[in-house]
Amino acid sequence: MNKQKRLEIFERLSAAIPEPETELNYSTPFELLIAVILSAQATDKGVNIATAKLFPVANTPEAIYALGVEGLKTYIKTIGLFNTKAENIIKTCKMLVNLHHSQVPDNRKDLEALPGVGRKTANVVLNTAFGQPTMAVDTHIFRVSNRTKLAPGKTVLEVEKNLLKFVPKAYLIPAHHLLILHGRYTCTARKPRCGACCIYDLCEYKDKTE
Question: What pTM value is reported for the model?
Answer without folding.
Answer: 0.93
